[in-house]
Design brief:
Length: 65
């Protein structure tokens, strides 16, 4: 699993699409690719995105009792 963090502050949608294409050309399977648009809520947004990415990869949160 590769996780890339970027605030995207100076990026526009076409630049993000280009970066995604570059990753895919290198053989990276992009399962979740999002911009964080609100710096004040960065942590909560990133936590949600990471959770979705883990689910997309087929992992489950299994708790041992």
């Amino acid at each position: 699993m590769v996780i890339v963090f970027s605030d995207g502050a100076s990026s526009n949608e076409s630049e993000f699409a280009e970066r995604k294409s570059e990753l895919e050309a290198m053989g990276v399977k992009v399962v979740n690719y999002r911009r964080i648009t609100d710096g004040a809520n960065f942590t909560s947004q990133m936590a949600g995105i990471l959770g979705e990415a883990i689910n997309d990869l087929g992992y489950n949160n299994i708790k041992e009792t």
